[in-house]
Amino acid sequence: MHEVYNKFQKDTERKAFDLEHRTKINFNISKYDAAVARGKQLYSNLDLARKRASSIKHRVVNNMDKYLIEFAANFEKNGGKLIWATDGAEAVREILSIMKKHGAKHVVKSKSMTTEEIEINDALEQNDIEILETDLGEYIVQLAGEKPYHIVTPAMHKSKEDIAELFHEKLNSPRESTPEEMTGLVREKLRKKFVSADIGITGGNFLIADTGAVCVTENEGNAMMSVSFPKVHIAIVGVEKIIPSLTDLDLFWPLLATHGTGQNITVYNSIISGPRQEGETDGPDEMYLVLLENNRAELLKHTEQRVALKCIRCGACLNACPVYKNIGGHAYNTTYSGPIGSVITPHLRGMENFKHLSFASSLCGNCTEVCPVRIPLHEMLLVNRNEAVNSGIVKASERISMIGMKHFLMKRKRMDMVNSRFKNIGMQLMFKSAWGSRRELPKFARKSFRELWNEQKSGV
């Protein structure tokens, strides 16, 4: 527990005061903010769209078993092969089994946070299977040996100069390469890999219950080619991505695009209902879908926090969060960062190790304000905090200090028993370390407001 928390403390301290990092992230998020403001103009009544989307996802979360059974039956009817994975380890074993069955040595993968969750790249590389990220942002962080910085834009923390330097080191391209030249270089390399790949891996933005289809949203076309060229397609999707009907996409796709990137609609939207059928010219011979549970049932047990499973992974809450904009995505040390990550990670990976994420928040409510499916994220953070305290997952020193503080603050007479000088000494002893060396600890005034008020009333 302490090891994870101590790492978080060190990483946040380093990033929060890294002015170069802050400049890059604020610049990139400012571009996002401007695009989203334009994208929202598509709607005549955005609040109504959000209410409808929230209602649909609420119904799904509370009837997930029903919709998953319907989806599974329709997906298998279409010729797909379904694998239920209770955790990441089981998902990895099943995927390695598919690789062995097909003798796969070269794999292409489109952007997917679920694959990051189970760390499939590391597992395949350890088994001498080449796996190549085909999304430009993911390709950049893979080259850099890093994890994605953001749910939607994995390389948000890098400037074009950083990427040019990385490409020079790894791909021997000129340091002065323009973004267009770097994109062209990556395109040339990836096209060859698409054609020669044995297996293609994708995630899935939505699972459609009434048709048994997997929906993939992207801007570069790499997911489409990861599905079309290889003979085998593996999709890895969390169980919470289910929606009832194909007709719901006209609501969810624009909401995802608008809140994720500021677009009216994403460039490529694919509906994949299974392997290539007789008479069809495109598509894989076999399609596998790994439905990942991985402690989502733990989140479902909580009647309040389960609403976090409504999330459509647009990343809007990250871009709105003042904490995320200061400490960055990597400091969270988990797949899902920002407010949504702080809500779900303690349940997906253990409250004992990750409770601190729910405390790393200003509770300003901006995340709730921008969420397209109206998840009350800042309220969920408070619920998590309460659960951590009630479960006893706090230091003894924290419990004792809070009990003492409560006893002291509950009575005005107790507060007035100690003058401001001794209060300031107490503040220094109790909070100086937690407050940090970069901020000046607030000081009690020589006279309290009550004393000043009484003096005013008495005419002194």
List the helices and strands and how they pair.
Blueprint: H1 2-16, H2 19-39, H3 46-62, H4 64-77, E1 81-85, H5 88-102, E2 106-109, H6 113-118, H7 120-126, E3 130-133, H8 136-144, H9 160-171, H10 179-196, E4 199-202, E5 206-208, E6 213-218, H11 222-228, E7 232-238, E8 242-243, H12 249-261, E9 268-272, E10 286-292, H13 296-300, H14 316-320, H15 322-327, H16 338-348, H17 351-354, H18 356-359, H19 366-370, H20 377-390, H21 396-409, H22 412-416, H23 420-435, H24 449-458
Parallel strand pairs: 1-10, 2-3, 2-4, 4-7, 5-8, 7-10
Antiparallel strand pairs: 5-6, 6-9
Total E-strand runs: 10
Kindly report the average pLDDT value: 93
Q: Report the span from N to C terminus.
A: 55 Å
Outline = globular
Q: What portion of residues belong to β-strands?
A: 5-15%
Q: How would a textbook summarize the main sheet? A: 6 strands, parallel
The CATH H-level superfamily of the largest domain is NagB/RpiA/CoA transferase-like
Give the C-alpha Rg. Answer: 25 Å
Structural category is alpha/beta
- Give the strand order of the largest sheet, numbering strands 1, 2, ... along the chain: 1-10-7-4-2-3
